[in-house]
Design a protein that fits this description.
heterodimer; A: about 120 residues; about 0% helix; B: mainly beta; six-stranded mixed sheet; four-stranded antiparallel sheet; 12 strands; globular
Chain lengths: ~120, ~110
C-alpha cells in the first residue's frame, strides 16, 4: 500500500506566481481532505471532498485558493497568485468511511515557501 | 461544537520513564477521538482511536489512552519512553461530518 502521495515535497516560488499542489489518495478511499499547518495557526482544514464532490470549503482562506478533484485518484490545490503568508506545510489526507472506521491517513506534506 | 485542549505544549521525560500527554475534549455527543504523532518533517501517523467501544484503547508502539467521560479526558500514556518517541503529538476530535478538529499539539522530548 503506497499510502497518500503528495507532490512536490518542497516548492519555492516567488510572490505572485501560481502554485499547484497534487495529491493521490489511497485507492478506494471516498473522502479527501486538504490541510494547512503553520506555527501560528496549527493544523487547519481547508476543504474536503466526498466521492470527488466538494463538501465543505469554509476553511479556504481566500479566493486565491481553489481545489479540484477530477477523479477518485487525484486532487489539486491551487494558489493564484501566491503570497508570502501562504508559506506553510500543506497536507492531504484520505479516509474510507465504513462503520466505525473513518480515520484519516495523511500524506507526507508539501512544504511551500513563497518569497 | 466540538473542541480539544491539549494541556501541555511541551513535555520532557527521561528515557525509560512513563509518558503522559493530556487531552480534554468538549462534545455535545459521544465523541470519536484520536491521537496522531508527527515526527520532524513527516506526515501525521495514527496512534490510536476511540469510537465508543472499550474505554481503554491500545495503539501502536506501546501507547494507550483511556476515555473518561466524567472527566472529559482522553490522555495518552506509555509505560516507558524511548528516544524514538520524541515527536509532536496531536489529540483530535471528529465532528459529525467526519471533519477533524485538532488540538494545538504537545511536543515530547525524551532525555537520554
Amino acid at each position: 500500500d503506497a499510502g497518500v502521495i503528495q507532490s512536490p515535497r518542497h516548492e519555492v516560488t516567488e510572490m505572485g506566481q501560481e502554485v499547484t499542489l497534487r495529491c493521490k489518495p489511497i485507492s478506494g478511499h471516498d473522502y479527501l481532505f486538504w490541510y494547512r499547518q503553520t506555527m501560528m495557526r496549527g493544523l487547519e482544514l481547508l476543504i474536503y471532498f466526498n466521492n470527488n464532490v466538494p463538501i465543505d470549503d469554509s476553511g479556504m482562506p481566500e479566493d486565491r485558493f481553489s481545489a479540484k478533484m477530477p477523479n477518485a485518484s487525484f486532487s489539486t490545490l491551487k494558489i493564484q497568485p501566491s503570497e508570502p503568508r501562504d508559506s506553510a506545510v500543506y497536507f492531504c489526507a484520505s479516509s474510507l468511511v465504513l462503520g466505525t472506521n473513518y480515520e484519516q491517513y495523511f500524506g507526507p506534506g508539501t512544504r511551500l515557501t513563497v518569497t | 461544537a466540538q473542541s480539544v485542549t491539549q494541556l501541555d505544549s511541551h513535555v520532557s521525560v527521561s528515557e525509560g520513564t512513563p509518558v503522559l500527554l493530556r487531552c480534554n475534549y468538549s462534545s455535545s455527543y459521544s465523541p470519536s477521538l484520536f491521537w496522531y504523532v508527527q515526527h520532524p518533517n513527516k506526515g501525521l501517523q495514527l496512534l490510536l482511536k476511540y469510537t465508543s467501544a472499550a474505554t481503554l484503547v491500545k495503539g501502536i508502539n506501546g501507547f494507550e489512552a483511556e476515555f473518561k467521560k466524567s472527566e472529559t479526558s482522553f490522555h495518552l500514556t506509555k509505560p516507558s519512553a524511548h528516544m524514538s518517541d520524541a515527536a509532536e503529538y496531536f489529540c483530535v476530535v471528529m465532528s459529525g461530518t467526519y471533519k477533524y478538529i485538532f488540538g494545538t499539539g504537545t511536543r515530547l522530548k525524551v532525555l537520554a
